[in-house]
Amino acid sequence: MEFPSKLISDSVEVFSKLPGIGKKTALRLVLHLLNQPIEDVRDFGQTIIRMRESIKYCKKCHNISDGEVCSICSNRSRQKQLVCVVETLRDVLAIENTQNYRGIYHVLGGVISPLEGVGPEKLQISSLFERIQSGEITELIMALSPTMEGDTTVFYINKKLQEEQLDVKVTMLARGVSFGGELQYVDEVTLSRALATRLPYE
Length: 202
Known about the structure:
Blueprint (H helix, E strand, L loop, with lengths): L5 H10 L7 H12 L3 H17 L1 E2 L6 E2 L13 E8 L2 H8 L6 E5 L17 H9 L5 E4 L5 H16 L5 E4 L15 H9 L2 E2 L2
Parallel strand pairs: 3-4, 3-5, 5-6
Antiparallel strand pairs: 1-2, 6-7
């Protein structure tokens, strides 16, 4: 795709690096910005820069946050003894969209995957155990994607709990969430039911 302006070409190239954005969609976005007042485009750019420079990760659960502790962990109405363990930030958003979960979270930052060189030490597993050892947590809901890697991660965490003799109930999402799928793509109704009918991990 050739453009009469290198500036347009460069902008299309930058936008097309975003996930799910092809060259045609990138061009449409660039042309839209080109037709906006310069002040609006400047605000758009500054907002993105400010987000990237200022966003923090909650020191408790590793969710995205504007401060040291995220709005979920600092919310007094949440059930602090109930922790939903997820892979990524997008999984937190997916579960929050169900509006049926009132506990808190722990974001691992991925799952154990030996083939990709991801071991337990590269995930937020040690900080999860630090939270458990504080004695406040009574149940872990393992809301990891139902894949081999997800199941391996659940197995590892459960085995470590047993080895350290930590008395915490471990439950799984009901398998209304299909094996091999990714949690972020599950619809809200299915995800709500899976949370409500979670099962003990065996």
